[in-house]
Design goal:
alpha/beta; Rossmann fold; six-stranded mixed β-sheet; 11 strands; 63% helix; disordered N terminus
Amino acid sequence: MRVHGWLVLLLMGWLAPAPAAAQTRDQTTCLAGADRNLAAICNRFIDDVSRTIDQLLSGKARADNKQLALYGRYNLRGGAYQAMARRFAANADSDKARELGLRAIQDFDAAIRLDPSLTHALLNRGIAWAQLGAFDSAVADLDGVLRIDPGNALAFNSRGGIYSDSGDFDKAIADFQQATALKPNLAEAYVNRGSVYLQRKQYDRAIADLDAGVRLGTRTLYVLAARGRAWRDLGDDTRAKADFEAALAAPAPDQRSQAVQDAMRELLRALQEKTEREQAAARRRAELEQIERERAERERIQIQRAERERIERERAEKAALAAAEKAARERLALEQAAREKAEREKAAREEAERKQAERERARLEEAARRQAELERIERQRAEREKAEREKAELAALELAQKAARERAERERLEREREAREQAEREQARARRVVLVIGNSAYRRGALYPLMNPRNDAAAIAKVFEALDFTVLLGIDLDRVQTAELMERFIHAARAAETAVFFFAGHGLQANDVNYLAPIDADMRDLATFINLRSVEAQLQSERGVRIMFIDACRTRPFAATGPAEGLPQPRGSFVLGVRGLGRVARNVPHGMLIAYAAAPGEGAADGARLNSPFTGALLRHLLTPGLDLRRLLARVRQEVIADTNGLQHPHDEDGLVAEEFYLRASQQ
């Protein structure tokens, strides 16, 4: 972006020596150069000045200093021609601009011949030579001004602009610094120096100088646009948007300024899309954090439930132990009671024996037998209780062992099921292979960069991975990389039941052959492109299905018009003047289906969203279970036609043998 060329308009107030009378409205408006009706105003002013010159030359007009008066009039008329030349140049009429520029130089020449010691016409002629691209002549005139007037800030500023336009930035900065030192309120010098710093990517210095120019009154759309670009490259999107919006609100009287405003609209749109992407990423992070919190909460609840179950088990075990201890105590109590009873009975027998020894002997023996029987019964009861207790413990142990065996068996069966499913998935992937190529970063001429192919390829690769395909993905591939990846794909496709080829990027048709473009393709050499017929031939197979999705011949929103240097290139023209790929007179190989994003002769839109219209429609339907491929393509066609207001019509060439084909069956 050459700021100096924009700011020459601001120098015109210095063209003429100070007149005795005030300037007319036409003179002021013409030399300022900002009015939309500039040509009519300047022509009226030129007619007035020309009449005055004729009167002075014929002697009909009186002047105290005729030579100085003629000098001033030639200088003013040259300035008017120069203002009109700038306007025609801004409206892309270079022939008319050159004609008026040469007229301006003729008037400045006439003024200089009248008085070579004055600097106004010499300065203006140097600026006029610069506008015509004659930089050596321009520098020579400005050097002449500085020999006459070494303190002329405008000459330093203008010469710095010429150095900037010719790429000598060090000399340009030195002249702009000299201009600001001589005249600290010369806004144009600050803005011109800021533009050089911007081209050098010294953004802090550029913004400081552009701010100074705005403070001193130079608030044109070009200055605001330049400062907005500096803010954007520094990462301050808020200030960049403010300057771009102010530039759009500024007057745009000619095609050049309108083109700059168009570029500002594109930059604003890009910043808005960036903001939306950042907001979407923030929302996604919040969703992931919420998912993580919910997962942690579920784990906490599971841990609490496991802890409660452990406590319940321990409580049950304690209760069982307490019951066993109680039974033991009761058994000991019964045994103690039995012993005490036996002792009492023994004492009674001894006392009875003393009183009735013989008579009681038989009774005592019987009592002893009964006691023995009781003891035997008691022992038997104790043994039964012990056996029942041991049996209960054994049953509990057997239940625990059974539960452990059942759990181990379930885990074994689950591992076997997962192993079978993994083996089935691996077998399915070996039978299904896809090559996905998305080229955005084109490098040459008419093959302009594209926004969406790399997004389309990444999204399509994820979908086919979900469909259990072996995925080969290539983003921004040159010719050599494409050949290497194609060789791997063709090798895998020979053993595959289903092979899919997806391409997003530039394409063209020549000599009844369709070609796809790697990022290093050269429009002058078809050998640098990929012959689509060759890809089809290599994919042919006696068995299985072969599918090709071709989302090529991308277009851009409007034709290239040569924007100001440094701004994003506009997007638009078709390569070789051919819209879309062509229909080739041949039969599609058996077992193959080729789906094109656009009908023969049409271009395929790159799209203003994350994906192209064709690829976006594919992404919405590829994972639909039980959807036949032909019905899927019919739905895609309907959506693309609706999405592009009927400007794009996908079509396909069907050589499939099977009556129906599914990328995803209903049971998946």
